[in-house]
Amino acid sequence: MKIGILTSGGDCPGLNAVIRGAVIKGDQIYGVKFAGILDGYRGLAEGDMIPLPRKRVRGLSFVGGTILGTSRSNPYERGGLENIKEQLHDNEVDAIIAIGGEGTLSAAKRMADDGIHVVGVPKTIDNDVAATDYTFGFDTAVAIATESIDRLRTTAESHHRCMVVEVMGRHVGWIALNAGIAGGAHASLLPEFPVSIDQICIWVNKAHNRGRAPVIVVAEGFAPLGQEGETTSRGMGNDGRLRLGGIGEQLAPIIESKTGIETRAVQLGHLQRGGVPTARDRVLATRYGTAAIDAVMEEKWGHMVALHGEEITTVDLHDATTELKSVPRDLWDEAGILFG
Fold this sequence. Notes:
Elements: E1 2-7, H1 15-30, E2 33-37, H2 41-46, E3 49-51, H3 80-90, E4 95-100, H4 102-113, E5 118-122, H5 138-159, E6 162-167, H6 174-182, E7 187-189, H7 197-209, E8 215-219, H8 247-259, E9 263-267, H9 279-297, E10 303-308, E11 311-316, H10 317-321, H11 329-336
Parallel strand pairs: 1-2, 1-4, 4-5, 5-10, 6-8, 6-9, 7-8
Antiparallel strand pairs: 2-3, 10-11
């Protein structure tokens, strides 16, 4: 049996740990072979695959990025289902482990519905995949954002400034919420809960009046109350989605004008996706990888490995891709007592 592994969508700390976990267990326990599908679904559509022996994955648990490359491609865009079947047949691949976020897993579900043998692994720094408690990469992104807030706080306090820290989060604010709490921010602005500019300024003034340097954490997908649509200054990406970014730069001069407090904005951007994964992400990613190979051997096609509590289980890809996992109101309200 030969299993193809691909990583698709945005890169994420821990991808290599999943690959390593799957290949080591597959080789040692089941005696199966692996093919690395290059650059996500592009490689699947074009049959661009390489052998993936055990020796190739040695020492990968702490390596960031993905040795297989990634892209935001659609497996059906070059010849449809018949082409996918042909590429798998020509490369003697019997099943696929697809590692990715909501878009990748939605494509995996479609393939499973069409009879392709596929198992999903949830990955995204945004932690927005439903039917699992955590996605690997999220812990690393929060740790990087928190460290950045810690560093920015010292320079803000030296100059008595307000700092607006923009983090990733297109539709959900898990990173902004958790990094804001961990970093002691005076407000966390999430896409799920629009608030007015006046309310933001109230929080800034409240912190400043206590002698603090206000720190505001904002998710890139946040839009102030009354604003239509997210902020973007970089147009459309190749995948047809807006390239978000710039809400921090939009808010900073408004806050400064309304409060009289010098305000600077910092956009963390891809720093949150780069570098080595945290210990927690390495462990979770490895467990996902070993569980994924088990799911393949048990022929759980159209399913995804997931974390429920401390247990790794499998869920139907339909449950994982029907809706995004957003921040519930009670968690944001809980954090709200710390604002200002």
